[in-house]
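Example record

One chain of 440 residues, shown exactly as stored in the release files.
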Amino acid sequence: MRKFWIVLLSLALIMAFTFPAAAADAKFSGSFWVQGTYDNNRKLADPTYGSVSSIYQRARIGTTFQVAEGLSFTTRFDALEKTWGAAAGYSATPDVTSENIKFENAFVTFKTVVGQFDIGYQTQSRFGTAFGDSGEIDNGGRIKYTLATGPMVFLALLDKVEGQKGSVANQYGTPGYASEHDYEKYSVAGMYNFTGGSAGLLIQYLLGSATADNTAVGVGYKTKAYAFVPYMKGKFGPVYVEAELGYIMGKTKAFMNEGTTAATQDVDADAWRGYIMANVDLAPAYVGAQAFYASGDDPTTADKNEGVLTTGSDYSPCLILMNYDLGKWYGAVGNYVTVGNNRNNILGGQLFAGIKPIPKLDVKFSVTAAKLNENLTTTELVSKNLGYEADLTASYKIYDNLEYMIGFGYLWAGDAFKGTVSTNTVENDYIVTHKLSLVF
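Predicted C-alpha cells for this chain:
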C-alpha cells in the first residue's frame, strides 16, 4: 500500500509540473543536412595518395517556450552528428562525431521597460557579417542586453568563453597563480538600420587568464586586450555590398611578474582582419567579387602577436580552401604547410558569377586566389602562394525548405604548401560533393 501511495504522489507531482508547461506556447525550428564528399588528395601529396570519402550528417532542433507575454525560454540541441558507418562513440580527430544529444543553448528571455535581457548558454561570436564569426562552434554562458529605439539598436554583452575554466586546484585563487583562470569578453555595440541595410560597431574588452602558465608559481599572465569591429551591409539599386573590419590591441600576455627572458616578457596584440564583397544583380544572372585578409604573426617579433584575429569558422568562401565542413570532418588542407577553415595569416580574393534560369535553381562559378602574409617560422618559406581554386555549384530547391546542392572544386596548389624545403613536392586536389539541406 505504501508503494501505491508513493507512485500516486509521484504522478501527481509530474502532472503538477507538466500542466503549466503544457499551457506555454512552444515554437519549434531547426535544420537537418546530410552531405557526401570525395576529396581526391587532401594532403596535396605527390604522387597522389590518401583520398578521403564519406557521408556525414547533423540534426539541429531549437525550441522556444513562450511562458508569458514578454517571457520565454529557448533551448537548442544537435543530434546524430556523425559520419555514416562510423562505430558508436567514434571520435578520432579530426572526424569528431556525436551520436548523442548535445544541448548547446539554454537561456531565458524577458522584456522590461528598459530593454530585453537574454541570460544563459547562447551562441557567441556573431556580429555584422559572417566574416570573422565563429557562431557555428562558439556557444557559452552569456548575459545579453538589447535596447531598440527607432532605427538604432544597442547591445551590452558579457560572455564566458567555454572550455577556458581552469582546474579545481587553480581556479580558486591559489597564491602565485593566475587568478580566476578563465576567459571573459565584455562588449558594447551599436547598430543603425536603414532601408536595405545596416551598419554598426562592436567594442570588446577581453580579459583572460586561462592561458596562464600554472606549472610554476609567479609566471602566470593575463590577456588584456581591446577589439574594434565596424561593419556595414546594404543594397543600393542592383548592387549589394557588405564589408567588415577588425582590429585588436592591448596585451595577449600581461605577466603578473614580468621578467627579462622572452618566456616571461609581455606580448602586445596588434592584429587586423578585413573583408569586402559586392554582388551585382543582373537578373537572371549575377556577378561579384570579394576580398579577405587576416594578418599573420611575424615570427621575428616575439614581443608582438599579429595573428590573434581569424577569418572565422562561419566564413567558407570555397569548397576546399577555408571550408568549415571539410575542415571539420577531414582536417586541414596540405602536409608541409596546412590551411584550416578558421584562419589567420591569409590574403585572398574571389571573382564569382551565377545564373538563376528558374527561381528554384542557382548555378554559380567562382575563382579564388590566396596567399600567406607572413612566414610560419623564422626560416623562409619557398613561397607564400597558396594557389588558385575554381568551384562550380548548382543548388535546386525541391521545396521552399528543402534544397539539394552538387558541387565540384579544383585546387591548383601553390608552392607555399612545400613549406621551407624547395625539393618538397605537392600535387593538386579536387573535390566532388553533394548536400541535402532541410530548414524548418
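Notes: Residues 299 and 377 are 6 Å apart (CA to CA).
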